[in-house]
User: Which sequence fits this backbone?
């Protein structure tokens, strides 16, 4: 469930209890049973399904939720390709927006 980003926060729910209540996401099936759904207007990734690896599960990118802070992360998953520079990244300077601005 790649994203091209070094880290993405996902939340997993039972797919049989999941439904889209507004709009119609676009879908992409790269291979096998891996289905990615995204906003057809802006391209924002939304949902991920893969019955081979995550049977009965839908992964949702937490930043797309109405309240992204409602669910705190509980684990790191798929760390096999974690970037070496991520170790200690929480100790780097942090800026509300851009440095110097």
Assistant:
């Amino acid at each position: 469930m790649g994203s091209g980003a070094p880290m993405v926060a996902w939340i997993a729910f039972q797919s049989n209890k999941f439904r889209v209540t507004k709009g119609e996401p676009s879908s992409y099936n790269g291979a096998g049973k891996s289905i990615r759904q995204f906003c057809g207007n802006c391209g924002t990734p939304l949902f991920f399904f893969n019955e081979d690896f995550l049977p009965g599960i839908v992964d949702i990118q937490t930043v797309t939720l109405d309240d992204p802070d409602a669910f705190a992360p509980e684990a790191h998953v798929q760390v096999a390709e974690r970037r070496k520079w991520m170790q200690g990244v929480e100790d780097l300077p942090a800026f509300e927006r851009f440095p110097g601005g």
